[in-house]
Amino acid sequence: MFLNTLTPKFYVALTGTSSLISGLILIFEWWYFRKYGTSFIEQVSVSHLRPLLECKVWRNPLNLFRGAEYNRYTWVTGREPLTYYDMNLSAQDHQTFFTCDSDHLRPADAIMQKAWRERNPQARITAAHEALDLEDCATAYILLAEEEATTIVEAEKLFKQALKIGESCYRRSQQLQHHGAQYEAQHRRDTNVLVYIKRRLAMCSRKLGRTREAVKMMRDLMKEFPLLSMFNIHENLLESLLELQNYADVQAVLAKYDGTRTHCAERISTAVKCVSLTSVWCGLCASAGFLQRRPSSSSPSSSSSSCSAVTCLSFSPQYLLEMKSLILPPEHILKRGDSEAIAYTFFHLQHWKRVEGALNLLHCTWEGTFRMIPYPLEKGHLFYPYPVCTETADRELLPMFHEVSVYPKKELPFFILFTAGLCSFTAMLALLTHQFPELMGVFAKAFLSTLFAPLNFIMEKVESILPSSLWHQLTRI
What we know:
It is found in: Membrane. The protein has 23 helices and 2 strands. Among the domains are: about 10-55; about 100-245, Serine Threonine Protein Phosphatase 5, Tetratricopeptide repeat (Alpha Horseshoe), CATH 1.25.40.10; about 420-475, no CATH class. By secondary structure, it is an all-alpha fold.
């Protein structure tokens, strides 16, 4: 009744008002673009709405060296293993860890503050050399070790030079940290620099085969700075302990850091809780006799543990079983995403292969559990749906030549899709025939005549070739 009482004036006023508002928005957008060089709506969407819709990415604690590892891949294959989005996130991390508000007081630190913001790798390296020409600078050595050094040995030498400078700066700022906010910020920056250098030195030792030395360095670092967990040093320690096959210490570290959202430990700690898949899921089994005890599929705890492991491991079985090609891990990862699975498999595949029969049991368990995944996923009680933005975030983190995995992806059979399409098409034809009987009749006659046109043409040709008497007898039959 309300809609029937509306007059044409209402629609004219509604159209005029919407046009006026659209015009004002257009004028404001044009003015804002002329003044600031960017769109206001786009800026608000990227700055405020996009973080709410996107998945949070995390720093990869086992990230490789750009100069000694990522660049080598580029030299050999001609492909870029890192995306601009990934490197931009790393640049933001570097500015957070290695700069402070008082950098302008020291010329070398002022140069490095600009260097961390440079997009061009060669410009960053040149700026680091300029800073070293003025004075010894720990962050300049860090940048050169990360991006200019072509081998791990060269990177280790540069990090050792950075360590001497970083320790002296740390001791100096430690004495002045309570003298004001400026000195406190300097001490925080010097602490981050020192921890980063020691952690990367431990990783160099690990890569050069000195695993026990790396474990000692990581343990000492964790004792010296127990509250500094942003670098996730315990994950580097876990990987080194797995290499030494020191599984008791691995479980001790997992028990200490259980409950924290970490890259490797989150998945391993979930797998450790499995009833009889403890060492298999993690690659921590020490005896072949353990693998002979197969879990009971009817056990509720075993089923729940398997579901939890599959949900947490996500795409990792595809890479662990070499069903999908592996690439270099990115510098940032997405929890439960393809990027995290790549990073996990890249560093832990060797631990799985070391255990005889582990990959075979993983193959059977993973396939069996994957069949239990409900469709749609929201109906399940043991599996948690993935955010919609997971695939988008992984696409930005991983290079274009890599095919991003979408999990869980269960394709419908062709018969179900065909039946659904046929039913929909039949229902649409019935509805159109009911509403427009005459028009649909014309369309039906035209369609049938077109469909039988080739048959009629063949029949005419046959009549012209065969004798009329023979054709008459055939038609009678």
